[in-house]
Amino acid sequence: MSSTDPATSPVQRRLLILGASLFLLGLLTGFIPGALANPRMGLASHLEGVMNGTFLIALGAAWGHVHLGPRAEQIAFWSLAFGTTANWVTTLLAAVWGTGRMTPLAAAGLKGLPWQETVVSAGLIALSVAMLVGTALVLAGFLAGGRSRG
């Protein structure tokens, strides 16, 4: 499918662009873990960017098989756009600040300031909910596509 193919939906194109952007940010993050307060979380942020970017690219490529109504499609897109991006940002903040309340294994005893811990904790909880909602809608859309074909 070329970039001028009329079958490419706006959501599909946005997923592909966001995925490639997040993948690039993840690659760039891979250069800095050793310079961060928590290098393990820096590595986690690198991996989150690369994996979530790959997920969005794959989803964008398969988006033609997702059959959702306009409202559900928008909820799925924005939930996944927020969840994947917040995953990279939140783990990067945890690495920079050295927080550890929600990530005790990766933090190795590090603790950030109370407000930093709150920001990271809220981000991790919010992105988890967003990813669950978005992924459930995409799964429902894949299943609906199979039923509509008989």
Fold and architecture overview:
It is a single chain. The chain has helices at residues 10-29, 39-62, 70-97, 104-107, 114-148. The two termini are 25 Å apart. It contains five helices and no strands. It has one domain (30-148). It is an all-alpha fold and 150 residues long. It is elongated and about 50 Å long.
List the helices and strands and how they pair.
Layout (H helix, E strand, L loop, with lengths): L9 H20 L9 H24 L7 H28 L6 H4 L6 H35 L2
Helix pairs in contact: 1-2, 1-3, 2-3, 3-5
Brief write-up:
The chain is mainly alpha-helical. It has one domain (30-148). The chain is built from five helices and no strands.
Number of discrete domains: 1
Runs in which pLDDT lies below 50 for 5 or more consecutive residues are: none
The arrangement of helices and strands along the chain is: HHHHH
Count of helix runs: 5
C-alpha end-to-end distance:
25 Å
Bin the helical content: over 70%
Which overall shape is indicated by the principal axes computed on the Cα atoms?
A: elongated
Largest β-sheet summary: none
Q: If you average the pLDDT, what whole number results?
A: 93
Query: What is the count of β-strands?
Result: 0
> What gyration radius follows from the Cα positions, in whole Å?
17 Å
The structural class is mainly alpha
Q: What percent strand?
A: under 5%
